[in-house]
Specification:
two-stranded antiparallel ribbon, 6 helices, 170 residues
């Protein structure tokens, strides 16, 4: 028996849209959009193929998500695009804004207060650290060479699991 059900879903994962290239029963389409000065107008035209970018924040705005949430989402997205970092509020800093950044040299998240100084959870990348064992060094080397923006999420998860296994075995 062959099931011929049709399923429609929306995704911002470009890695999933690539399934249309390898699975003959998957067809990608998108709603045409026009972006000018940061505003997106979605046309009433459906085109073949995946879209070339994510419009999640714009869609949330159109869907009626509260304005403070949409505004904060835009801020976070802009910051990620600029610095590959996220500003976080709260925690031990007493409400002070902290920028969370992953430091490849130390292998830890660090932070800086809004004024640019080191926050309470900031890593001190300039201090002398204990030398890493060979297994940890190998994982860090692979991580440095990895382009997370071009690696599919499932592949990233598999790599992380492999690194955890390697470190547990050492």
């Amino acid at each position: 028996m062959t099931v011929r059900a049709k399923t429609l879903f929306a995704t911002h994962y470009h890695e999933l849209t690539s399934l249309g290239e390898s699975l003959p029963t998957v067809q990608n389409v998108h709603v045409a959009g026009d972006e000018r000065d940061g505003d997106v107008t979605f046309m009433r035209t459906v085109r073949d193929g995946p879209t070339n970018r994510s419009y999640g924040v714009h869609v949330a705005d159109l869907a009626g998500v509260p304005e403070p949430v949409v505004d904060r989402s835009r801020e976070v997205l802009d910051r990620l695009r600029e610095d590959k970092a996220i500003e976080v509020r709260g925690g031990d800093s007493g409400g002070e804004t902290t920028q969370a950044v992953f430091d490849l040299a130390s292998g830890q998240f660090g932070g800086a207060s809004a004024d640019g100084g080191s926050g309470p959870d900031a890593s001190d990348a300039g201090s002398a650290a204990d030398p890493l064992d060979p297994a940890s060094e190998a994982v860090l080397e692979e991580l440095r060479d990895l382009d997370v923006n071009e690696t599919p999420p499932v592949e990233l998860l598999a790599k992380v699991q492999g690194w955890q296994d390697d470190l547990d075995d050492s």
